[in-house]
Amino acid sequence: MKRLCLLAFLATPLWAGDELTATGDLGLVIERATGSLVLVDRSDRAAVGRIEGLGDLSHASLTYSPDEHFAYVFGRDGGLTKVDILTRAVVARTVQAGNSIGGAISDDGRLVAVSNYEPGGVKVFDADTLELVADIPAAGKTIGLVDVPGRRFAWAVWDTGEVFLGDFSGKAPVITSLGNAGKNPFDAVLTDDAHTYLVGLFGEKGVTAFDLWDDAAQPVKFLTDYGKEGEDMPVYKMPHLQGWAFTEGQYALPAVGRHKILWVDRDSQETTATTPVHGQPVFIIAQPASPFVWVNFATPLNDTVQVVDSRSHEVVATLTPGKAVLHMEFAPRGAEVWISSRDDNKVLVYDTKTREKVAEIPAEAPSGIFFTARAHQTGL
Fold first, then answer.
1. Which strands form 245-247's sheet, in the order they lie side by side?
2. Which one of 173, 312, 335, 370 has the largest count of C-beta atoms within 10 Å of its C-beta?
3. Domains plus CATH for the chain?
């Protein structure tokens, strides 16, 4: 990361001598055991600071403001924390529920929404002040919250299977029911073109798709026949759908309760192939600008990462980065992948061309890795 000091010529006393920090290659790593964040620099492959006092981060995620200046962290204890990554400080915090599971920022960066397990529902806050803007109740746990273009958010309800679209572009929010996805939706994801909202089902086989470009979107189920032969294994960790890969005109999806990846044609929603893999997939993430997807797995087989070619649907590499691999994050153009190894207290950096480790960064029980490039991606 380049750090520049302004030169003396055309001196302006306000800025003279100040050190400028670019945010484009910064990122945050969640330290789940200590309620803290490690600020990392991709160019230097190094930790450059730590931010503490964020509560229970045992299951946490975050998103960024459009200018990459602030991070909004969603904690297991219901905490919503606004962090200044330049000053490396907490600037605002509210415990807005008893148990939250994630959140999103609107496309204009003005609203932050949080989905809650307890008491359920979605709360929406002003991104500047964290003042409550809207409180949308639900008849159960809310999951799969994503931002949708047009200052909107979509989410699903575990207990009822209902899916909602909230429009916050006017003076008052407009909440629309999109229909019922099915039994026990466990997570959801928005496709990279913001066209389709995909909801994964735990209580029954299948995935339900909602066409958000259609003003009268209807639920369309697919993958309803997979796994009908043979028995499912216990699910030790629920797959995370925001890691579903979209590549080569396909969805690469985890077979819940199976050691398989399912490949589905994006247009026809027909299953085209399956790939046997090391364990139960948790994250399946597309390597940018390549035909490859990288997969990590649920306990007890969580010391392994596999690379799969989306053209042949074959495993082309198997890596063992460390104990309890929880998350992977690619550099925006795909040159590197950063991998958290919780039980080794390390973040490992791999060159994606050679698939060789090029760096290690110490961190206390690291889990999620989030680069500031996420500020410019829809659905995160």
1. 245-247, 250-254, 260-265, 271-276
2. 370
3. 59-224 (2.130.10.10)
